[in-house]
């Protein structure tokens, strides 16, 4: 299958405020569920309509159209509880209840390494990884159900048995479904860039999120990141380079005029405002070689057509 951005169910990168988008479960149900305490990541607030339980901060996604063809809906139902992991919710449709612990060996039926692919879109990277590494257990995390359904279609058609999927907010999956040290790798490819300054707080790759990733990674485990937005690439490198749990696997690589960051700034690829070399120069480097398992997805082809550079980063969890 050739990836393309023309699919009707292509998840797009959100650029607009929540209010202008499809229903978003960042807003919460009015009646608090019967819980002894407010789960981590949520807080209780008093509003004119009464008490509400809301998420602590902005979420990194906008929930989009959930419509799927009848065939895909049937497929989804048929695999709910097996390949599609059932999730107990708390206050939002993409939430994960605190008691949702996942037993990896039991759920996958094999004791291989766990690789968690976060924000998989249509799941191209999960699929490619699962086919190349049948001994590993792949968990695809995504809030966009039609994207997961497309991945489901592929794994069922091709008889791939080492993929499980969860339709939920990634930070909650990490906090509640996965035990400390459970994962050997975490992949986050082309995370929504939230390009405008006022939405940067919605970007997934922040120090607090890396705390959550660090907890689930085994010592020596790997975090792999990729993006096509130079400003977000610089932010990812900054937060990961300075995070005490992570070590850059390619320190200083491509620093200077050959850095993709230098080139992106010189050519103004994010905002069409080219910077002079003195300002553009990236003296830090640290960019990883392209992760060979990562396929060119619809997001990457779109970026290539637009002339943007691709940034890969790889970090090891320090013991
Ligand atoms: C730009 S797409 C990239 C898809 C894919 N990784 C690729 O490389 O083609 C980002 C995806 O991350 C998902 N996403 C964003 N925040 C998420 C979160 N907190 N939990 C789960 N998925 C999330 C979005 O729904 C979207 O499908």
TrEMBL record:
<feature type="region of interest" description="Disordered">
    <location>
        <begin position="1"/>
        <end position="44"/>
    </location>
</feature>
<feature type="binding site">
    <location>
        <position position="117"/>
    </location>
    <ligand>
        <name>S-adenosyl-L-methionine</name>
    </ligand>
</feature>
<comment type="similarity">
    <text>Belongs to the class I-like SAM-binding methyltransferase superfamily. TrmB family.</text>
</comment>
<feature type="binding site">
    <location>
        <position position="228"/>
    </location>
    <ligand>
        <name>substrate</name>
    </ligand>
</feature>
<protein>
    <recommendedName>
        <fullName>tRNA (guanine-N(7)-)-methyltransferase</fullName>
        <ecNumber>2.1.1.33</ecNumber>
    </recommendedName>
</protein>
<dbReference type="InterPro" id="IPR055361">
    <property type="entry name" value="tRNA_methyltr_TrmB_bact"/>
</dbReference>
<feature type="binding site">
    <location>
        <position position="142"/>
    </location>
    <ligand>
        <name>S-adenosyl-L-methionine</name>
    </ligand>
</feature>
<keyword id="KW-0808">Transferase</keyword>
<feature type="compositionally biased region" description="Polar residues">
    <location>
        <begin position="1"/>
        <end position="25"/>
    </location>
</feature>
<dbReference type="InterPro" id="IPR003358">
    <property type="entry name" value="tRNA_(Gua-N-7)_MeTrfase_Trmb"/>
</dbReference>
<keyword id="KW-0949">S-adenosyl-L-methionine</keyword>
<feature type="binding site">
    <location>
        <position position="169"/>
    </location>
    <ligand>
        <name>S-adenosyl-L-methionine</name>
    </ligand>
</feature>
<keyword id="KW-0819">tRNA processing</keyword>
<comment type="function">
    <text>Catalyzes the formation of N(7)-methylguanine at position 46 (m7G46) in tRNA.</text>
</comment>
<dbReference type="Pfam" id="PF02390">
    <property type="entry name" value="Methyltransf_4"/>
</dbReference>
<keyword id="KW-0489">Methyltransferase</keyword>
<feature type="binding site">
    <location>
        <position position="192"/>
    </location>
    <ligand>
        <name>S-adenosyl-L-methionine</name>
    </ligand>
</feature>
<feature type="binding site">
    <location>
        <position position="196"/>
    </location>
    <ligand>
        <name>substrate</name>
    </ligand>
</feature>
<feature type="compositionally biased region" description="Basic and acidic residues">
    <location>
        <begin position="27"/>
        <end position="39"/>
    </location>
</feature>
<dbReference type="GO" id="GO:0043527">
    <property type="term" value="C:tRNA methyltransferase complex"/>
</dbReference>
<feature type="binding site">
    <location>
        <begin position="297"/>
        <end position="300"/>
    </location>
    <ligand>
        <name>substrate</name>
    </ligand>
</feature>
<dbReference type="GO" id="GO:0008176">
    <property type="term" value="F:tRNA (guanine(46)-N7)-methyltransferase activity"/>
</dbReference>
<comment type="pathway">
    <text>tRNA modification; N(7)-methylguanine-tRNA biosynthesis.</text>
</comment>
<dbReference type="InterPro" id="IPR029063">
    <property type="entry name" value="SAM-dependent_MTases_sf"/>
</dbReference>
